[in-house]
Write a structure and sequence with these properties.
Length: about 140
């Protein structure tokens, strides 16, 4: 009898715990997460950053540099033209430029000059800015 009583008590206690746990879980599931707004904002920013990474460039041309220009113009200080004069960005020009205000502009210029002098193939990625192609990324091989 004693064993039966303890088993019955244990089962009763376990059922109470199971009921309480289920009730707590139900309440937690129905409760709105605390970070809902932050989570949605983070997800939107992540999706946007992946989308812009894929669609970031307006043009991509591979070839050899035919001509380089340096100008006193503050907005288009350094210009590059490829052999065959292809359009370097969608609806843009046959040349692409860099400005002194661009980050790493000296690195871009030295890389492009080295490619020109050594007659290396260049992969040039550009953005269209005010109808003119602006250099965004350079690969030399």
């Amino acid at each position: 009898m004693q064993v039966f009583y303890n088993t019955r008590l244990a089962l009763s206690w376990a059922n109470t715990l199971d009921t309480t746990s289920a009730q707590e879980l139900t309440e937690r599931a129905n409760r709105a997460p605390r970070c809902t707004m932050f989570s949605k904002l983070f997800a939107a920013l992540a999706a946007l950053s992946f989308a812009t990474a894929v669609l970031a460039y307006d043009g991509q041309v591979t070839g050899k540099i035919f001509k380089m220009d340096a100008a006193a113009d503050a907005t288009q200080t350094f210009r590059v033209t490829f052999a065959g004069s292809p359009i370097l960005c969608t609806g843009g020009t046959t040349y692409a430029y860099l400005s002194e205000s661009d980050p790493n502009w000296k690195s871009f210029i030295s890389t492009l000059q080295l490619a020109f002098v050594t007659n290396k193939t260049v992969n040039l990625y550009t953005w269209k800015v005010a109808g003119v192609c602006h250099i965004a990324y350079v690969e030399v091989y």
